[in-house]
TrEMBL record:
<dbReference type="GO" id="GO:0052855">
    <property type="term" value="F:ADP-dependent NAD(P)H-hydrate dehydratase activity"/>
</dbReference>
<feature type="domain" description="YjeF C-terminal">
    <location>
        <begin position="249"/>
        <end position="531"/>
    </location>
</feature>
<dbReference type="GO" id="GO:0005524">
    <property type="term" value="F:ATP binding"/>
</dbReference>
<feature type="binding site">
    <location>
        <begin position="446"/>
        <end position="450"/>
    </location>
    <ligand>
        <name>AMP</name>
    </ligand>
</feature>
<feature type="binding site">
    <location>
        <position position="62"/>
    </location>
    <ligand>
        <name>K(+)</name>
    </ligand>
</feature>
<comment type="similarity">
    <text>In the N-terminal section; belongs to the NnrE/AIBP family.</text>
</comment>
<feature type="binding site">
    <location>
        <begin position="61"/>
        <end position="65"/>
    </location>
    <ligand>
        <name>(6S)-NADPHX</name>
    </ligand>
</feature>
<keyword id="KW-0520">NAD</keyword>
<comment type="similarity">
    <text>Belongs to the NnrD/CARKD family.</text>
</comment>
<comment type="subunit">
    <text>Homotetramer.</text>
</comment>
<feature type="binding site">
    <location>
        <position position="347"/>
    </location>
    <ligand>
        <name>(6S)-NADPHX</name>
    </ligand>
</feature>
<keyword id="KW-0630">Potassium</keyword>
<feature type="binding site">
    <location>
        <position position="284"/>
    </location>
    <ligand>
        <name>(6S)-NADPHX</name>
    </ligand>
</feature>
<feature type="binding site">
    <location>
        <position position="160"/>
    </location>
    <ligand>
        <name>(6S)-NADPHX</name>
    </ligand>
</feature>
<dbReference type="InterPro" id="IPR030677">
    <property type="entry name" value="Nnr"/>
</dbReference>
<dbReference type="Pfam" id="PF03853">
    <property type="entry name" value="YjeF_N"/>
</dbReference>
<dbReference type="Pfam" id="PF01256">
    <property type="entry name" value="Carb_kinase"/>
</dbReference>
Length: 533
């Protein structure tokens, strides 16, 4: 860990910044200058001809960045209008403000002043950044709603984040949870040092537009201060201006090499067992089994009850079939120590899953529990006591709500009374981590912003807002099979889950709109080849 790009919480970001300043080798003003310069540079890249810009500066250091941006764009020949507050910001922002005042005036930060001026090509939102702690109100809330008008979007540039966005959760403070209508949606967001969870979760990806991460020279302190548990992002759905983003495959290759020696044989590549359901419902488990094969498990055996064997007679021929009626059959099968990964849930039936779960969990074998197995866990809470660190639970939001109703409830909080919402808001990341700690298992909370968490707090986010066509029947079964296949190959559970999620997304990206779940396993060889796996 981290796999892919590192994500920092806002607390980790502040700790990094403080460590840098405490070292005496970099000042807050220097960081602010670098931050502002990076944003001005990104604006000039996109608008090479100097035009008109309105810079909206808030009360803190985000506003300080705004004054730097104003000065730098003015120096580059832009016609700059600055709206700001008559408050006493911190010393760095105050210094930047004074430097701007030597160049031009500061108009009041009001909707009226915003409306009165000439049209601008670009509006820079430097009102709130990581310091936002409560919903914007009064005049600033009015301005933000005004900026939320779609006519601003093409020219709206957010400094660190669109103002009002909680960078730990991706919720808009003050907006009903899960909605962001009339929130300021930027064309471009330039964030500093590392992405924050809020850039990748909930409304964040929708409101940030293109996300650029600018290096402001904090790497040494970020790596040195070890504030809290590090988070990984599995898909760089943003530009990394400093080249620090590592492609995931290079990072995980070492883990995958396990069992893939040139002298290996099929058993050294693992044996995955996919448990299927009764007659007429075998499709889901077959999707999982095909995915487990494509993920490189040496053997995959599909285990329906005897009465359903006949319907699994068709290809793929690489798939082995073996009847499994009850828990005794499973226990007997598991005496074979070579079975190294199991998948229970897709198309299995809740009752059958509940019958098989005790034997499966007692074996302590790496396993993925999806779909009906999750519902069985929710309806038989006593079973949850046997979960262990090599179990991977893969709930979508509905299943998560059944398994962890109190945690799901907190995720919704604020929706009835948005004004009461405080930051940082309880996030999907918090929810997955809390669920994983409670279950003592890996939790993969599915969605366009998939979060994967381990009981010890390690976590990853996979951002798939670019893949709406992945929300299709059976896609989850394929994901479960990929996890099972990689578990069977001997990858540790968190790593297997992260890699499976990434491969799943990459397969969907490759296929594009129109994909069906059946296509996903077939796209894997190309994804694996292309990523050097
Ligand atoms: N972390 C870093 O490494 C760096 C941070 N910089 C900038 O500094 C920002 C953080 O600065 P600050 O901590 O000063 O915070 P912000 O500038 O984000 O805003 C916080 C200020 O607004 C007030 N505030 C919070 N919520 C409010 C609300 N709803 N209504 C009215 N006032 C509210 C706070 O009391 C505080 O004064 C970052 O987002 C970034 O733009 C850069 O200048 C340099 C490097
Ligand atoms: N809007 C979305 N954009 C991208 N991916 C999504 C979206 N909604 C869901 N997904 C992904 O699609 C898959 C759907 O899984 P699931 O809900 O279990 O479906 P099923 O049970 O039909 O297989 C998951 O990998 C999930 O993360
Ligand atoms: K901002």
């Amino acid at each position: 860990m981290p796999i892919g790009t590192e994500i920092l919480t806002t607390a980790q970001m502040r700790a990094t910044e403080s460590a840098a300043m405490a070292s005496g080798r970099v000042s807050g003003a220097a960081l602010m200058e670098r931050a502002g310069r990076a944003v001005a540079g990104q604006i000039r890249l996109r608008w090479p001809r100097p035009g008109r810009v309105t810079v909206l500066c808030g009360p803190g250091n985000n506003g300080g960045d705004g004054y730097v941006i104003a000065r730098r764009l003015h120096q580059a020949g832009w016609r700059v209008r600055v709206l700001g507050l008559d408050n006493a910001p911190g010393p760095d922002a105050e210094a930047m403000r004074r430097q701007w005042l030597a160049i031009g005036p500061i108009l009041p930060l009001t909707e009226q002043a915003l409306r009165d001026g000439p049209d601008s090509d670009v509006h820079v939102d430097a009102i709130f950044g990581t310091g936002l702690t409560r919903p914007p109100e009064g005049e600033i809330a009015t301005i933000l709603r005004h900026l939320g008008d779609s006519r601003f979007r093409d020219g709206l540039v957010a400094v660190d984040c669109p103002s009002g966005l909680c960078m730990d959760s991706g919720a808009m403070l003050g907006w009903p949870r899960g909605t962001a209508e009339h929130a300021p949606a930027a064309r471009l967001t330039v964030a500093f040092d590392s992405p924050k969870p809020g850039h990748l979760l909930e409304q964040g990806p929708i409101l940030c537009g293109q996300l650029v991460i600018a290096d402001i020279g904090l790497r040494e302190w970020r790596e040195g201060q070890g504030a809290g548990i590090r988070l990984g992002c599995l898909w760089p759905a943003f530009d990394i201006a400093d080249g620090r983003c590592q492609p995931v495959p290079a990072v995980v290759r070492a883990g995958l090499d396990k069992g893939r020696t040139r002298h290996g044989h099929k058993f050294s590549h693992g044996h995955a067992l996919v448990i299927a359901g009764g007659p007429g419902r075998g499709g889901a488990a077959r999707l999982s089994a095909r995915a487990a094969l494509r993920a490189g498990a040496g053997l995959v055996t599909l285990c329906p009850p005897d009465a359903a064997m006949a319907e699994h007679a068709q290809p793929p021929d690489a798939l082995m079939r073996r009847p499994m009626d009850g828990a005794e059959d499973l226990t007997a099968l598991l005496t074979d120590r070579r079975i190294s990964g199991l998948c229970l849930g897709p198309g299995c039936g809740i009752d059958r899953a509940a019958v098989l779960l005790p034997a499966l969990l007692a074996s302590r074998r790496p396993c993925v529990l999806d779909a009906d197995a999750l519902t069985a866990l929710a309806t038989h809470p006593a079973l949850a006591g046997a979960l262990h660190e090599a179990c991977v639970l893969t709930p979508h939001a509905g299943e998560f709500g059944r398994l962890f109703p109190d945690i799901a409830e907190r995720l919704q909080s604020g929706s009835d009374d948005p004004a009461a919402m405080r930051g940082p808001a309880f996030s999907r990341l918090d929810a997955a981590r809390e669920a994983a700690a409670r279950a003592g298992a890996i939790v993969l909370l599915k969605g366009p912003d998939t979060v994967i968490a381990a009981p010890d707090g390690r976590a990853m986010i996979h951002s798939a807002f670019d893949l709406p066509w992945l929300a299709t029947a059976g896609a989850g079964d394929v994901l479960a099979g990929l996890v099972a296949g990689l578990l069977a190959r001997g990858l540790p559970a968190l790593r297997a889950t992260g890699l499976a999620t990434w491969l799943h997304g990459q397969a969907a990206r490759r296929l594009g709109p129109g994909l069906t779940a059946d296509d996903l396993p077939e796209a894997l060889p190309a994804v694996l080849r292309q990523s050097g796996l």
